[in-house]
Amino acid sequence: MSGIAGIAQARLGAKNVLKDDSYLGAERSFMDKDHSNPDSVAPLSSRIIRARYVLNDSGGTLDPGKGVVIKSGAPNKIGGYHSANGRCDGVVDPFLVGAVAVNDYFWLIVDGPVDVEIGAGNITANAVVQTIGSGLFAGGTAGTNTVGHSGIAEEAANSGARARVIFNNPFSVAR
């Protein structure tokens, strides 16, 4: 696959679709569907997921469903996981199988419905989603630590599980 056709045909759940820095920053909209089985993509909410093609330049692996920040001075490269109450620029594609290795290209979810990893404590449906460090999320309180607010939970989930959220961090540099 090459060039624009490669990006246009790319799907969630795939790494290294194009190993070419000239495509970094390309944005694509996907329908909200379950992309875990490419032979049988099932509809979820059918809302729009906005994603950006990025490179893992963090120096370590990145796990699907965890929040990350853009590397300073490199708008299409990932610098690592977000910190507690810190800005979150997007979520590593949750449909990927296995971690994203250093220098892998992947889709970063920057807006819309996405499954995220829940850290300490549980999260309730309709709760504010807050960054808590190491790429994990938890329930937050509206009006506090606004930089770390990353959206609204659509469902409840226990610590160590995933929760469906509408990701929308107004402080994200990937917006």
Summed up, the domain count is 1
Number of strands: 10
What's the CATH superfamily, by name? Answer: Head decoration protein D
- The portion of residues assigned to helices is under 10%
Task: Explain what this protein looks like in three dimensions.
The protein has 175 residues and is mainly β. It has one helix at residues 3-9, and strands at 27-34, 42-56, 67-71, 74-81, 90-92, 105-117, 128-133, 136-140, 149-153, 162-167. Strands 2-4-3-5-6 form a 5-stranded mixed β-barrel. The radius of gyration is 15 Å and the shape is globular. The model has no long low-confidence stretch (mean pLDDT 90).
Give the SSE map:
Layout: H1 3-9, E1 27-34, E2 42-56, E3 67-71, E4 74-81, E5 90-92, E6 105-117, E7 128-133, E8 136-140, E9 149-153, E10 162-167
Parallel strand pairs: 2-4
Antiparallel strand pairs: 1-2, 2-6, 3-4, 3-5, 5-6, 6-10, 7-8, 7-9, 9-10
Describe the structure concisely for a colleague.
The chain has one helix spanning 3-9; strands at 27-34, 42-56, 67-71, 74-81, 90-92, 105-117, 128-133, 136-140, 149-153, 162-167. With 175 residues, it is mainly β.
